[in-house]
UniProtKB/TrEMBL annotation:
Origin species: Agrilactobacillus composti DSM 18527 = JCM 14202
GO CC terms in record: plasma membrane
Keyword Mitochondrion: no
GO molecular function, one term: transmembrane transporter activity
Membrane topology summary: Multi-pass membrane protein
Domain Major facilitator superfamily (MFS) profile: 17-403
Source domain of life: Bacteria
Intracellular or extracellular location(s): Cell membrane
Primary location class: membrane
Record's protein name: Major facilitator superfamily (MFS) profile domain-containing protein
InterPro entries: MFS (IPR011701), MFS_dom (IPR020846), MFS_sugar_transport-like (IPR005828), MFS_trans_sf (IPR036259), Tet-R_TetA/multi-R_MdtG-like (IPR001958)
Length: 405
């Protein structure tokens, strides 16, 4: 079992781990987002499809990774608790390197679908990075560290589409897969040599998942945080299919739609890079439950306001503020989970958290598209606000227990 050590001599170990894992999550974000914006266009080069066929195959291939991640996450989580988090980091980074590199050679959509399923099966670098830092960081630094770590994925996700666009413009779609594969191989090598983990497996870590959950003293709080994660991801992803269409409805110059859509999409992440570590420190000082509540209330307000926005300037401002609410929500959930999860089950608890993220990433776009199809783009934001209201009810129901976080 990895135990937190506040000894000065041990501090460089977790600090160095943070640097390497931040870079690893950053490059994971870069690699994933380099490909995603162009996936449908790449699929279109693999055959002759009607518009409906292209939409169907693109949706299936895109969602397949998240579906597989949701299925395998509990298995990898249990393995992390019995074998250690570093082996899971190595498994994830090397698996991603091989499968993504191989995507550059596919000639049929079924081949791409198979590799995307494998990619989902090898997922877990980010969740295991969080789990490793959660159990090895001194408690008084947990908020700051996990807040900082969360910015790695966000920063990579912001930079990835820009890098991918340049690569596609100068070379080809296939080059993005090859370059991403090499990037993940670099992450694997850095993890092998520089990430350190003191891990001693315990017999209790081999307990079955259902038996483990049944005996967790803080099961109610953990389930509550998993539901918060599901709603966060579902809410964020529900507006993605309609965001550029919503922007087009508000922008009068059609030549500016693409640029402004990019600004609107990246605005929350740009703010989150700055504010997430700040909220982490504030949570350490004043309590993570207060930061979580503030994030829920702010998110609820912002999504309602987006549903009534009538100008693109208002939308951009509100999306920037969404970055503030995201900065309060996601790291707070991770910190609360780390404090309530026993050390022998940390890997599994964070794997369940990743599973909820994946489920939200599948349901969210489908729900958002359905609402937009039958109602309006603005209605999608109001429906998202309804889901956030469920998070507020969830928080109130568990407020007493959360104050201990």
């Amino acid at each position: 079992m990895t135990t937190p050590n506040t000894n000065v001599k041990e501090r460089p170990v977790w600090r160095r781990n943070l640097k390497i894992l931040w870079f690893g999550t950053f490059m994971t974000g870069v690699g994933g987002s380099m490909i995603s914006p162009f996936l449908s266009l790449f699929i279109d080069t693999l055959g002759h499809f009607t518009r409906a066929q292209l939409s169907l195959q693109s949706g299936l291939i895109f969602a397949s990774t998240y579906l597989m991640t949701a299925i395998v996450s509990p298995f990898w989580g249990k393995l992390a608790d019995t074998k250690g988090r570093k082996p899971m980091l190595l498994r994830a980074s090397l698996g991603m390197a091989i499968t993504i590199f191989a995507m550059g050679f596919v000639t049929r959509t079924w081949q791409l679908l198979g590799l995307r399923l494998l990619l989902g099966a090898f997922s877990g670098f980010v969740s295991n990075s969080v789990a490793l830092m959660a159990v090895s960081t001194p408690k008084k630094y947990a908020g700051r560290v996990l807040g900082t770590l969360s910015t790695g994925m966000v920063a990579g996700t912001l930079l990835g589409p820009i890098v991918g666009g340049v690569i596609v413009n100068q070379t080809s779609y296939r080059a993005t897969f090859w370059i991403t594969g090499v990037i993940m191989l670099l992450v694997f090598i850095l993890t092998v040599f520089f990430v350190k983990e003191q891990f001693t497996p315990q017999a209790s870590a081999k307990t079955g998942s259902l038996k483990l959950l049944a005996h967790l003293p803080s099961l109610k709080v953990i389930i509550s945080m998993l539901l918060v994660t599901l709603v966060i991801q579902l809410t964020d992803k529900s507006i993605m299919p309609i965001l550029s269409l919503y922007v087009r409805q508000l922008v009068h110059d059609p030549h500016q739609v693409t640029i402004i859509s990019g600004i609107v999409a990246s605005a929350p992440g740009a703010v989150m890079i700055i504010t997430a570590p700040i909220f982490g420190r504030l949570g350490d000082k004043y309590g993570q439950h207060r930061i979580l509540l503030g994030g829920i209330l702010l998110a609820l307000t912002l999504y309602i306001l987006q549903g009534f926005a009538t100008s693109i300037v208002a939308v951009i401002i509100l999306r920037l503020l969404v970055g503030v609410s995201d900065s309060a929500l996601a790291p707070s959930v991770q910190i609360i989970l780390s404090r309530f999860a026993p050390a022998t089950a940390t890997g599994r608890i964070f794997s369940y958290n990743q599973m909820m993220q994946s489920i939200g990433a599948v349901i969210g776009p489908l729900a958002g598209s359905a609402v937009a199809a039958y109602f309006s783009y603005q209605t999608v934001f109001l429906v998202a606000a309804g889901f956030i209201l469920l998070n507020l009810i969830n928080y109130v129901w568990n407020a007493k227990a959360l104050r201990a976080a």
